[in-house]
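cache lookup: miss for this entity combination. No prior model stored, computing from scratch. Input as submitted by user K.M.:
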Amino acid sequence: MADQTTNPIAFVAEGTIPPSPPPGNETGVIKWLRENLFSGVANTLLTVLSLMLIYVLLKNTLPWILNGVWDANSLAECREILDGMTGACFAVLTERWPQLIYGFKYPTDAYWRPNLAFVLMLVAFAPVLFFDLPRKLLLFTAAFPFIAFWLIWGGTILVPIVALIGIVAAATVFQKLGRNSFAAGFFGTIVTALVVWNVGGALIPDGASESAWLSPVPSRDLGGFMLNMMLGVTCVSLSIPLGIALALGRQSDMPLIKWVCVIFIEFIRGVPLITLLFVASVMLSYFFPPESTVDLFLRVVIMITMFSAAYIAEVIRGGLAALPRGQYEAADSLGLDYPQAMRLIILPQALKISIPGIVNVAVGLFKDTTLVSVISMFDLVGMIRGPILASTEWNGVYWELLGFAALLFFVVCYGISQYSQWLERRLATDHH
Amino acid sequence: MSTMTDPPKSDFRLTMLINDTRYRSLTFQVIAAIVIALSIWYLGNNLIQNLRAAGLNISYSFLGDAAGYDINQRLVEYDSQSSHGRAALVGLLNTLLVAFLACITATIFGVIAGVLRLSNNWLVSKLMAVYVEIFRNIPVLIWIIIIFTIMTAVLPGPRAFRGDNPTSSMLLDLFAFTNRGVYVPRPEFANGLFGAAVLNWLLVIAVLVGSWFVTREINNRAMKTQEETGERPNTMLLNLAVWLVPFVILMFLMGLTWNVPALKGFNFSGGIKVGGPLIALWFALSIYTGAFIAENVRAGIQAVSKGQTEAAAALGLRQGRIMNLVILPQALRVIIPPLISQYLNITKNSSLAIAVGYADITATLGGITLNQTGRAIECVLLLMLFYLTASLLISMVMNVYNASVKLKER
């Protein structure tokens, strides 16, 4: 105590000391590197290994890609230009571009037709994919299949028009009859559509297709990536309603309908797609009337649609099962009948839950459309393995072509899965 | 004068068939039955007419005829004089072989990638994410073709191994990677206890299975001791001895030798030749499905909440035991069902063998046999029957497993 009085205090802090900056290795890039890449011996080892892997990959591919030749007429010419350097021969892509995209038989002067159909497809999909767009656009979506059919296959415009009229008439009948009884509306719809199509079909004059403004293109002339896109889009769109019907059928309390759906779904899911494509190519024509000729494209569409419908049905069944029992009971207590309950209460919720699963099936199906090359349809893979690699000019250009095919599929499939994740976030109504 | 009302039964009107819930489902089912019967009759009638027009009939006698084509990759005896049925059997075994191999390697790839994707290491987890996205979004057919192209166009021919300064050499002098296939050493028994090689191998398997039973017994006893006394006897050395000693003695008795492939003339001989198509299919299927399994594994591990790890740590368990006793049993319950359906996918995707010329059942029965005999309906039906049986068996295994790991509610 005495010391205090004799020795005045040498230092008194008059304010708080400003915090000193963290040590250099605890901030910014260094901290991040230390925590995420070099936090221990094992981690450092992993980092070094990964860096080596990336280095080896880049060292082998980068010069090959950067030295690529984009303008040549054959592999020999490419090699001449490269003159011993490593480099890709991307010229095959530019030279064979139309074949890769449209197949090798689609008429050259008609390439604008699938192009236009593709652009229209984007427009038609927009209101389905993005809910903020005006709902009126859905009318165009409904008309799109007929426009696309006319554009791609050509021929007389009367065929798609008759088909469209049939659908419109059927929809009108359903509006009128379905208000009172779903069953009456259902059967009335089928009868109306059949009547309109038969009468309309009889009215179309023979030979109308030959003199049509758009020259007709037979299905066997379709090919390339266009064929993959067409199969993917058609089969997914057709299989969603069929899948919903199968899922509801499997949940039904009518034993006959339930068991038919169960057997169908389990059978289709139990066999590989390739056997179903075999059925389409060699077996299905035995089951059509003897004089009829159903072309291979349609047979393949039928089988792939059945295939994906079975998978989509299982996804939707999961969605239906995930709904709480109370939703069904609430619908019943409101006095809704089965079609109303399904349309207004159950399906909107069940489908929302099923969206990720449905998108998975759609991506898988789009990838599986490459399998048609096995039954000698010339889709993208079929074109690469068949006409292009077999030609004398481009025999041996494997990596450029296969890499291009892989890239194309990757872009589309990755895009779809990113969309589905966005949609999931968008539709999430629960709060965490 | 009686004023009794009519019994309800006579009140039946035809509209009740559709409007009364008591009868409606019956009505619908009758209509459905009629529609189904009519379509079956229609399709069957078309089939009969078409077959008659083409002069065909449904008969499976072609399975006994000589096939007349060769199969390179085979597990059982087969030559071009064997029957179509035998060819189908060879194909069936080949399908099972590639599916089995791919299931094992796909699981290994998938588990490694799935665990590494959850790694703290930013670079590694991003690399694994890239692997998963790239392989999931590109068709497996393209992967099979790419790997097959590597096998045939990039690997050197046997010629490159010859001469004084060969451009290629064998890996460790044991493995030869050529564009005709990969040659690996083959174990052989100089003085086997049985005449046939198959019996010797069966003996080896029997010994291994025996060791497995013994180790299980040892572990059970250790568990019992632990429950009674609280001390767990150390069984590791004992287990190791039970696995190794009988196996090594057996190998020594039978005189194990390795038949190493060697260059003879223009080609390699000796060893086991694993054909390029098999490797392409095997590797492509495993690396493609591995990407899917990685996602399943990641989801399974993330499904176990962090509280479980912390609770186990609070009980004083060590890291390894937390993993074995707490995390894995719960994660596996989530991982295994999708894993088994991935195995199912591998089995079904192995039918893509036809694209690279691997003689699986789709390529023999559904490919060459179908084209040679023209028996489309019979071949495709048999093919579907095989795959259907396989998938039903696999889903049966899954159901049994699901029942056994179901949360026991008391």
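stored under new cache key. Chain A touches chain B through 57 residues (CB under 8 Å).
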